[in-house]
Amino acid sequence: MRKMRRKGLASMAVQTVASTSNPTVDLGPAAALSCRECGHQVPLGPVFACEECFGPLEIAYDFSAYDTEELRKRIEAGPANIWRYAPLLPVPADVADKPNINPGWTKLVKADNLARELGVTGGLYVKDDSGNPTHSFKDRVVAQALEAARAFGFTTLSCSSTGNLAGAVGAAAARAGFRSCVFIPHDLEQGKVVMAAVYGGELVGIQGNYDDVNRFCSELIGDPAGEGWGFVNVNLRPYYAEGSKTLAYEICEQLGWRLPDQIVVPIASGSQLTKIDKGLQELIKLGLVEDKPYKIFGAQAEGCSPVSTAFKAGHDVVRPQKPNTIAKSLAIGNPADGPYVLDIARRTGGAVEDVTDEQVVDAIKLLARTEGIFAETAGGVTVGVTKKLIESGVLDPSLTTVVLNTGDGLKTLDAVAGTGLTATIRPTLDSFREAGLA
Ligand SMILES: *Cc1c(COP(=O)(O)O)cnc(C)c1O
Ligand SMILES: [Zn+2]
Q1: In this structure, which residues have their CB less than 5 angstroms from ion ligand 2?
Q2: Which of 14, 109, 196, 247 has the smallest number of CB atoms closer than 10 Å to its CB?
Q3: Atom 7 of ligand 1, residue of closest alpha carbon
Q4: How far apart are CA 390 and CA 236, in angstroms?
């Protein structure tokens, strides 16, 4: 396992202009790939690890030509999906005209009922990403990876997945006319298998767990059998990851080009949380929002809480765990971006917390009952952690707070399987009265 340690803020520079470029690849403002650990730069390509130190590569941009007010106007005049932010993403300028699933611009719901229940007075919002084409936040990252796959001439889209990603890849490939071949553990829930298979791509069950699936995919990339294949979360990972920045952009624009004070984000690999921070930093540097402090809070389920365990222990390395939780979309026991999440939570004055499966279910019901939003288990994790952090005084209820719901409750019906009929009656008014419901 490679060990990733922080090297301070210098390694987080996001506007580095590349010394090297690949003239055949047009990915808009993306200038190069830059190592997050040592800063080594390489031309844009389907690579994800630094050849010098094995650190993760991320996109370095050239935003130097942008005028703040012109950029703001261009974004506001853009389409009601993530491509309104094309000037800030590794995609060609005409991306909106290409066949893609066009996710994003999901609702930012002012959750006044939930705020009352939790005692939040500073404004509480739910960013509801269940509204994406395949009903999870994964459409944002897959849409980016698809554009990178197109730019690099790949014809097959692939991934290792525990469910949400498989569906997003299947749908994006179908729309764009790519072949898709997706790998999942063979014993996934039937609902997730159907959700991934319905788009007509190939779906392969691997006899093993998610880690085995991942290892298999890494081998396939190095083999002639995987030639021409873009694995969205492996060899296209630097591009894929940038999709999460759009959550930060949307939240700020929907708040009237304002930073939230506090934001609660679920953690699986930790990629989403780190890129939300990257997105907020970019908006500040570009002058699109006022430069003021914000706090990022990470949320995990107790049954898979390697990052919150490290946070609470004051460690800056993350010890892998064997997942055992109903929040399966977050069940990554060895999160690649874990150390960066710890850095961000500490740097911004946030925290990482976890909740039990029982608290996850209670939180799903709380959100549904107060706001009419049916979240998947990952949303139960963020709402549950928000409640816990308010009760422990870590989250300040007098500040503007945004909680992410990253998926649709219809995908994880089992979590609330005990919910059902209030009563069964005969079709008569007497029977209705007898049931005590009049
Ligand atoms: C994948 C996923 C996340 C976040 O994953 P990261 O690996 O941390 O980026 C959050 N919620 C849902 C529902 C997901 O499927
Ligand atoms: Zn490096």
Answers
A1: 35, 37-38, 40, 50, 52-53, 55
A2: 14
A3: 269
A4: 38
Contact 236, 226 (CB under 8 A): no
Sheet containing strand 41-42, strands side by side? 41-42, 30-35, 57-61
Among protein residues, the one whose CA lies closest to atom 14 of ligand 1 = 329
Residue 272 lies in a domain: yes
pLDDT in tens, 261-313: 999 999 999 999 999 999 999 999 999 999 999 999 999 999 999 999 999 99
Q: Which of ligand 1's atoms lies nearest the C-alpha of 266?
A: 10
Q: Judge if 57 and 170 occupy the same domain.
A: no
Distance 422 CA to ligand 1 centre (A): 34
pTM over 0.90: yes
Does one domain contain both 313 and 356?
A: yes
Between CA 130 and CA 415 the distance in angstroms is 16
Question: Which amino acid residue places its CA nearest to atom 3 of ligand 1?
Answer: 268
> Structurally, how many domains does the chain consist of?
3
- 79's CB contacts (< 8 A; 6+ apart) are 96, 102, 105
